[in-house]
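User: Structure please.
Assistant: Input sequence and predicted structure:
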Amino acid sequence: MLQFFDQWLNHAAVAVIYRQGYNGTELFFIQRAKKEGDPWSGDMAFPGGRQQQEDANLQHTAIRETWEETGLDLFKQGRYRTQLGRQITRSHHNNTPMIITPFLFQWQGKDNWSLNHEADDAVWIPLEFFNERQQRESLVWKQGKLSLKLPCYHYEDKTVWGLTLRMVDNIRLKHELFN
């Protein structure tokens, strides 16, 4: 059904990057830069962004955006694994529906990222952290008069919630993806 609307919707892609670290499988997150007027300001996310006309495909979008935001070169030091389940959200530019496609990459490089103006921080979080039910908490999200209690994880001083948490939930129990 979503394919029918693809041509009329905005598209974006993210790179879900993992590595085998000291704490087992770890996922790479960025903390979005804090900007007034940005509804996702300061949120934890996977690197990525909107598809541009020069992108050959959405996988290329994820690779290009990761390079721009973090300096991590997935062409040279990432091993493409698979496309993950697409997510529908809204574009913060014009509030219209947008489809986000996550792509899974195994990181085979060093920890030498260089963040651009779109990200304030980056961190590797052990996948096992998200499998520990006692780590799951909630936050109150407010939009005007609307107030919702939503699930989240607090890792150190970072909060993973919303669309990024939906993506994590889709992969956290699929250990076969990381072999």
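DSSP finds five helices and eleven strands in the chain.
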